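Researcher: Please predict.
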Amino acid sequence: MARRGRSHQQNHEVGQELNLVPYMDIMVNLVLFMLVNIVSFLSFTILNASIPQLNTNPSKAQAQAQGEELLLVLRVNPNGFLVEPTVTGGSPIAKKSIPKVVDETTKKKVFDVATLNGFLVDLKKRFPKEAKILIISQSDIEYENIIHTMDAVRETTPGTEDLFPEVTLSI
């Protein structure tokens, strides 16, 4: 039998693999560099929001119940604000609805935080020691509107004391 020469001989070439280590190193460094640069342009603001405390001392609760106390709830809905003050140990205060107003510059309806702030200033005069407020917002309210509302319930004009600095937010 004759030998068949090169026709059955298989060519096995040794292929070179692509070295991915330098490429991965460059990509990791690039991503980290971009993250550091992007974060430096962002500004972060911390808003202190307290959570309700569990009262384990019943004698303290009874002592507080003897005086006039205010439980202040502010509801934020798409139509405006609804302030629900509940007074224990004193004369009741009616709920106040504060509808949205038309902004003169944009001609859009916006939340009336000035009227809200004025109403809360009047409440603070009657309850000067009260510091807590519960803000209940619907889920479709924009974040900026919630922040403006929180600012309006915490502060009055600069140089005066805070209105209700202990804000509890519920969404």
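Model: The mean pLDDT is 81.
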